[in-house]
């Protein structure tokens, strides 16, 4: 009974909302709103590209800084582990996070 009542009230509310929206004049998007949608979309693309470039530059700078500090990189550790047969082999993998 509760499910039937909730379904009936929801469908009645949607039906009256659609009827009210159909009776309002000028429901078609105006050129101004279309232009603003295009501008906001382009702004979003530019923002996304800026974030991707910033992440790339930061990652490159971090790797360069680690190399200058003399810290062994993952490639050096792997190369050392491969050349030494007696020592346990340690392999460091860089994990990439894609959001």
Structure at a glance:
Keywords: Membrane, Signal, Transmembrane, Transmembrane helix. The chain has 99 residues and is mainly alpha-helical.
Strand and helix map with partners:
Layout: H1 2-23, H2 31-68, H3 74-83
* Total of DSSP H or I helical runs spanning 4+ residues: 3
Helix content: over 70%
Low-confidence stretches: none
Q: Judging from the principal axes of the Cα atoms, what is the shape?
A: elongated
Largest sheet: none
Order of helices and strands: HHH
Structural category:
mainly alpha
Query: Using only CA atoms, what is the Rg?
Result: 29 Å
* Proportion of strand residues: under 5%
- Mean pLDDT across the residues is 77
Query: What is the straight-line distance between the termini?
Result: 44 Å
The number of E-state strands comes to 0
Keywords: Membrane, Signal, Transmembrane, Transmembrane helix
Signal peptide: 1-22
Protein name: Formate hydrogenlyase subunit 3/multisubunit Na+/H+ antiporter MnhD subunit
Transmembrane segments: 38-57
Can you put this structure into words, describing what you see?
There is one protein chain. 0% of the residues are buried. This protein has three helices and no strands. The two termini are 44 Å apart. The radius of gyration is 29 Å and the shape is elongated. The protein has helices spanning 2-23, 31-68, 74-83. Helices cover 71% and strands 0% of the residues. With 99 residues, the chain is mostly helical.
């Amino acid at each position: 009974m509760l499910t039937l009542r909730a379904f009936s009230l929801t469908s009645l509310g949607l039906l009256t909302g659609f009827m009210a929206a159909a009776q309002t004049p000028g429901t078609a998007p105006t050129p101004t709103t279309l232009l603003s949608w295009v501008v906001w979309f382009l702004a979003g693309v530019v923002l996304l590209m800026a974030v991707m470039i910033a992440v790339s530059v930061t990652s490159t700078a971090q790797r360069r800084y680690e190399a200058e500090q003399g810290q062994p990189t993952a490639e050096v550790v792997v190369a050392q582990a491969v050349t030494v047969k007696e020592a346990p082999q340690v392999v460091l993998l860089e994990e990439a996070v894609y959001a």
